[in-house]
Write a structure and sequence with these properties.
Layout (H helix, E strand, L loop, with lengths): L3 H7 L30 E4 L2 E4 L20 H20 L13 H13 L12 E8 L5 E10 L2 E11 L6 E8 L1
Antiparallel strand pairs: 1-2, 3-4, 4-5, 5-6
Length: 179
């Protein structure tokens, strides 16, 4: 028989589900967000990265890149998705709620992590808390994220990669891992 006081403590209200990030703007604006020259250090959130590769094509040229969302939007996206992943792995949110925002491969990885109980708190233990989210944009339309999650006295790491879908331009999680 289940104790009503204990079952009430195990029930966690689910937060409101919001769309992760609106679609990319349809207009092109490379002049508004000029790319730094290749080889210069670029500050991306809390992580430093080096810009490598060819310079961006001139405005109006075929293959000119779309405007990248502002950096703060990408930081918000990374943080919101990290929180949702932690909630799924802790058992506070069903994994099916993220199926729209993951590729088939990533959903399989996520389901495996949930079955393994990667971030599930021990009975009577404290819930996982996201302490830091660090992101990097190694290429246009790609965001690699690492989050530090405190689970009682121990810290765990959660890493995932978000990519823009080529047709819908929405962000999807391509891979996920927790250690």
């Amino acid at each position: 028989m289940v104790d009503p006081a204990r079952s009430a403590a195990l029930t966690v209200p689910l937060p409101e589900i919001r769309r992760l990030l609106p679609s990319a703007p349809a207009t092109r604006c490379p002049d508004r967000h000029p790319a730094p020259p290749a080889g210069t250090a670029v500050r991306l959130g809390r992580v430093h990265a080096r810009r490598v590769g060819r310079p961006r094509p001139a405005a109006g040229a075929p293959g000119a890149a779309r405007c990248a969302p502002p950096r703060s939007d990408l930081n918000d996206l990374a943080t919101r998705f990290a929180l949702r992943l932690v909630e799924v792995m802790a058992g506070a949110r069903p994994a099916g709620q993220l199926s729209r925002h993951t590729t088939h491969t990533a959903y399989g990885e996520l389901a495996l992590l949930v079955r393994r109980g990667a971030l599930r708190p021990a009975a009577g233990g404290s819930r996982p808390v996201v302490r830091g989210v660090y992101d990097s944009a190694p290429a246009p339309g790609v965001l690699e994220v690492c989050a530090r999650v405190d689970l009682g006295p121990r810290s765990r790491m959660l890493a995932f990669r978000l990519e823009r879908h080529p047709r819908s331009q929405q962000w999807q999680c391509a891979t996920v891992d927790a250690r």
